[in-house]
Amino acid sequence: MVNQTKRLYLSPPHMSGLERKYVSEVFDSNWIAPLGPAVDAFERDLAGYTGMKYAALLNSGTSAIHLALILLGVGPGDYVAVQSFTFSATVNPIAYLGATPIMIDSERETWNMDPGLLEEAVRGMGYGVRGEEKPGADQKMIRKIKAIIGVNLYGMPAKWDEIMAISKKYDIPVIEDAAESLGSRYDGRMCGSIGKFGILSFNGNKIITTSGGGALLSNDKEMTEKARFLSTQARDNAPHYQHSEIGYNYRMSNILAAVGRGQLEVIDERVAARRAINQSYREALAGIPGIAFHTGPSDKYFSNYWLTAITVDPEKTGGTTREDIRLALEAENIESRPLWKPMHMQPVFSSCPAFTNGVSEALFHDGLCLPSGSEMTENDLNRVTGIVKKTINRS
């Protein structure tokens, strides 16, 4: 028998109505073609919101990572240190360029890249420290790792002070994958503004959406202009179509940028709603043995809680597992999802170097993302928490 109860999705789009104003402007001007005033305006809005000087609007966060790696000179034979506990879009662009990802496991506090393992990887791949004495050896640093890609998982900022200290020590640029963390802050700084490049995603399930899209953030004007050039098929400045470099069809359209402008106007409301939902879950499930929430280690970590994530310890729940809860929710027409399967466990990346400690594997085994859409009602939250409690009480 099919469950007729309203489907609760993990993170559905949430339109404000403000988008209509900007989309109408685009239609009225007939500026539907790929570039136009809405693109320029949304880029300025994003730069202003995140604190970066420049933004290049693209068709996905994946495209933004790909272009960032190209701008950093990553190519065949190079290595890129990347967080293993993430979606495959963080890692795939490394493979596009013929480079090799080096998977870095997570630390337990933020679930993001472990700085200790990162430095171990950097040293293990042949780096010397700037100014370090090496009797009888060339004093130039051996550069095997070309870039570092860190992630703010589910909106939680990584340990950026430690990661950026390693970046500076070994002169390795950082790409900050902030696809899930627009509106999050680390020590007062907006996520997306911490590395050499920041990456945003406006996919349909993100905290704001353009249906599909992304952005590359930077303080480097020349590199931002280069990204725009590459993202429009690398067309040279000539009256005819001339190309001296390989380009890509990566630009966001003017009409989707109009949607983004309306969405960005309510970003603070969306962040507040997601954080309120997270708090409601914490209060409703407080005191239940075996349930733990993804939580920042200190006040320096301000998460947008794009998704509320929990871990389920069957030794404390009386045997109830994450999968028991997921299946119970699905039976009631409620979508939930296991945490990301680490990239070093994925068949396509299983042969890549990996510096692991078991943290992300354990989180994948025991972790669950709960419905977190910013339009969730009190009744919706009660449906979810009631099923979680009922499933555990059966044990």
Q: What can you see in these coordinates?
A:
The chain is of the alpha/beta class. The protein is about 35% helix and about 15% strand. The protein is built from 13 helices and 15 strands. The protein has helices at about 20-30, 35-50, 60-70, 90-95, 115-125, 160-170, 220-230, 255-265, 265-285, 315, 320-330, 360-365, 380-395; strands at about 55-60, 80-85, 100-105, 145-150, 175, 185, 190, 195-200, 215-220, 290-295, 300, 310, 335-340, 355, 365-370. The strands form 3 sheets. Strands 1-9-8-5-4-2-3-14 form an 8-stranded mixed beta sheet, sandwiched between helices. Strands 10-12-15-13 form a 4-stranded antiparallel beta sheet. The protein has a 3-stranded antiparallel beta sheet with strand order 7-6-11, with no helix packed on it. Strand 2, helix 4 (about 90-95) and strand 3 form a beta-alpha-beta unit. Helix 1 (about 20-30) runs antiparallel to helix 8 (about 255-265) and helix 5 (about 115-125) packs parallel to helix 6. It is globular and about 70 Å long. Residues about 130-140 have low confidence and may be disordered.
Largest sheet: 8 strands, mixed
Topology as a string of helices (H) and strands (E): HHEHEHEHEHEEEEEHHHEEEHHEEHEH
Shape, principal axes of CA atoms: globular
Portion of residues in beta strands equals 5-15%
- Largest sheet, spatial ordering of strands: 1-9-8-5-4-2-3-14
User: Got a strand count?
Assistant: 15
Give me the Rg, rounded. 22 Å
Q: Termini distance?
A: 26 Å
Class per helix and strand makeup: alpha/beta
Mean pLDDT: 94
Low-confidence stretches: 129-141
Count of DSSP helices? 13
How helical, in percent, are the residues?
A: 25-40%
